[in-house]
Amino acid sequence: MRSEATTVDDYMGTLPEERRAALETVRATILANLPDGYEEVINWGMITYQVPIETFPDTYNGQPLMYAALASQKNHMAVYLTSVYALPGKAEEFEAAYRATGKRYDMGKSCVRFRKLDDLPLELIGKTIAAIEVETFVSDVETARQTRKKRS
Predict the structure, then answer these.
(1) In this predicted model, what pLDDT tens digit does every residue of 54-93 receive, in sequence order?
(2) Number of domains in the chain
(3) Does residue 3 lie in a domain region?
(4) E-assigned strand segments in 3-137
(5) pTM of the complete model
(6) DSSP letter at 10?
(7) For residue 8, what are the CA distances in angstroms to 14, 27, 67, 89, 128?
(8) Contacts 24+ apart (CB under 8 A), 122-125
(9) 1 domain-assigned
(10) Which range has the worst mean pLDDT, 58-67, 80-89, 113-122, 134-143?
(11) Mean pLDDT value across residues 4-32
């Protein structure tokens, strides 16, 4: 479900109380662990934590580079972790850590799906968010892009 909200407060205000409470808790975890240099905005119809376009303008689509996002979808809520998807070896590392928590693992390429807050390992989400500084993320993304180009 893509939101038409233009601010985080507007986005949160459109949610049913149970989802709003869950997403506020996840948002607080993200903000408490988010390295300096990322910005919180509404982009792509969800709460997005991104590298400002002024910091890294050379993106494939002309949009700011998304680091993470938080959304309420039709049948679930989701935390999107671009670093887990985009950087080599991170997906396997994240999956192993997630499964070690004993919580139900439900993830797409970057989308960690959850139906209630208790389904989500907040400590792991916080550690994953805190793990990569802006400069490192940009450098890692550029390196991964160059590696993919060489394979093509």
Answers:
(1) 999 988 899 999 999 999 999 999 999 998 988 778 899 9
(2) 1
(3) no
(4) 39-43, 46-51, 65-72, 77-81, 111-114
(5) 0.92
(6) H
(7) 10, 10, 17, 32, 22
(8) 122/25, 122/26, 122/29, 124/94, 124/97, 124/98, 125/26, 125/29, 125/30, 125/33, 125/79, 125/81
(9) no
(10) 80-89
(11) 95
